[in-house]
Specification:
Distance between the termini: 44 Å
Order of helices and strands: EEHHHHHEEHH
Strand order of the largest sheet: 1-2
Number of domains: 2
Shape: elongated
Radius of gyration: 28 Å
């Protein structure tokens, strides 16, 4: 006597055609009602490009292609700025050693921000954003996401914000502008959730 197992819940069915645990019927092979409802509820999303996408595609590709170089320039300027101001503070302290009332926190932030921006632009932005923009690999950019639960956050937005935080205000714009254009006017609609 061979034993059968329910394909839905794994319970032993024996010779019976109906699972006592979940109600699965092997004769009709009916699927659970919950899966049928899920299929009915999901709306079909059109995979059409935004009507203005052809007019902005070249701009997105060019600006994105140069984003990593602009990030490196931003970091270099920040580094120079930090070292110049730090040098001035140290020269002032050397000239008037008894009046050290200023701590060079901002200047150290400039130096740290410059280093982070340069490294980040070369290691992350170039291969994962700029090269993809140059190749017009829009599917990669729209699907390279940080998923938190059901929410999909594009990495390109996060990278642009990080460059904005660690660099100057203009350093992250070559990432944020193409990212926003891709998300809201891209070749296909962007889904913010996995549902």
């Amino acid at each position: 006597m061979s034993s059968k197992f329910c394909p839905e819940c794994g319970a032993e069915m024996g010779e019976s055609k109906i699972c006592e645990k979940c109600g699965y019927e092997s004769k009709t092979k009916a699927k659970p009602k919950t899966k049928e409802k899920e299929k009915e509820v999901k709306p079909k999303v059109k995979e059409e490009a935004h009507p203005n996408w052809p007019s902005v595609e070249n701009f997105v590709s060019e600006l994105g292609k140069w984003a990593w170089i602009i990030g490196i320039i931003d970091g270099i300027i920040y580094l120079i700025w930090g070292f110049v101001w730090l040098g001035q503070i140290l020269a002032l302290v050397a000239q008037y050693p008894n009046i050290l009332t200023y701590l060079p926190g901002v200047e150290i932030w400039y130096i740290v921000g410059g280093i982070v921006t340069i490294v980040f632009s070369f290691i992350i932005i170039k291969p994962r954003f700029s090269d993809k923009c140059a190749a017009r690999d829009w599917d990669y950019l729209l699907n390279d996401v940080l998923q938190i639960g059901d929410v999909r956050i594009p990495w390109m937005l996060i990278w642009g914000i990080l460059i904005e935080v660690f660099g100057q205000w203009w350093g992250g714009l070559p990432i944020l502008i193409p990212a926003l254009l891709l998300i809201f006017m891209g070749p296909k609609p962007y889904n913010w959730t996995t549902k």
